[in-house]
Amino acid sequence: MQNTKKLGAAIIGCGAIFPLHAQALAGLQGVELLAVVDSDPSKAEQAGREYGCMSTTDYRTIIDRDDIDVVHLCTPHHLHADMAVELLHAGKHVLTEKPLADSLDAAHRLLKAAANSTGQLGVVFQNRYNDPSVRIKQMIESGELGRLLCLKGVVTWHRDEAYYQSSNWRGYWATEGGGVLMNQTIHTLDLLQWFGGEIRSVRGSVTTDVLDGVIEVEDTAHACIDFSNEARGLFYGTNAYLVNSPVELEVVFEQGTLLQRRDCLYLWKDDQETLLCEPATKSAGAKSYWGTGHFRLIEDFYSHIRENRKFWIDGEEGLKAMKLAKDIYSSSNARS
């Protein structure tokens, strides 16, 4: 049965990703953004003025508010689990940005809280909603190109010293939980495991190629991922490039190859390349290399809440990409 009650929302964290969540909420019918929270008073006040809602520096003030049903977590990684656990204990629905937590112990604690809550836990892996991702997943499941043989994901982005100095939590194991794997490329890791299925083994390594002395964590990583279905995945990600290039994906089947380039999906078959899909809209203010899936995911999360259905990218799903990243760290003997 669909719930027609107007849903009240709050967003904790008014940093770089905040506008995507706020704009998505502004476009949803039957949803009202009632509060924004940030430990920086100026950020909270500015966001409150812009979106016409209450602002505060203390997220605990929203926990007991009966008019707030859904809380979005756009906070630093190390704050996700503790905040989400409190909110879930209070019966709130929680939509958290990636990663699920900064450590596997914190993630499992969060999953336990979600299992015992009347609220839903959702994790933002918005690239699953991008048109090429949807089409790739459909073609894997349909078997129309035969058996999946191998796949790869390549992410070459740019993060410099100024980026890390702009926030006191980035670049440290204790607060970020990792570097390029946990922050930037975790979305591509999520797609690789979503496409490939159950993982049998992981071997990889991490290095700090250009930011040594600036950050504790890695800026570059690669991995070989063997799946239970005998497919093999290769991954490369770095923050050491000088531009933010679009993510590249290649998925090879017995009877053809799918290639994602510049957010367009192509099929290479019988020595001919065919365009299968391209972005219908731009990213509505987001950095272009982030993709366009945030709005779709947020709308879908609220639809599941209204219809009392379990959201499909829940804590268990969100844990998979995080565990893959941690397995790469373990393989490389890096702190994880």
Automatic annotation (TrEMBL):
Keyword NAD: no
Protein name: Gfo/Idh/MocA family oxidoreductase
The keyword Metal-binding appears for this protein: no
A Pfam family it matches: GFO_IDH_MocA_C3
Gfo/Idh/MocA-like oxidoreductase N-terminal domain sequence ranges: 9-123
A GO molecular-function descriptor: nucleotide binding
Signal sequence annotation: 1-22
Family annotation (SUPFAM superfamilies): Glyceraldehyde-3-phosphate dehydrogenase-like, C-terminal domain (SSF55347), NAD(P)-binding Rossmann-fold domains (SSF51735)
Keywords: Signal
Domain GFO/IDH/MocA-like oxidoreductase: 135-258
InterPro entries per record: Gfo/Idh/MocA-like_OxRdtase_N, Gfo/Idh/MocA_Oxidoreductase, GFO_IDH_MocA-like_dom, NAD(P)-bd_dom_sf
Species for this entry: Paenibacillus agri
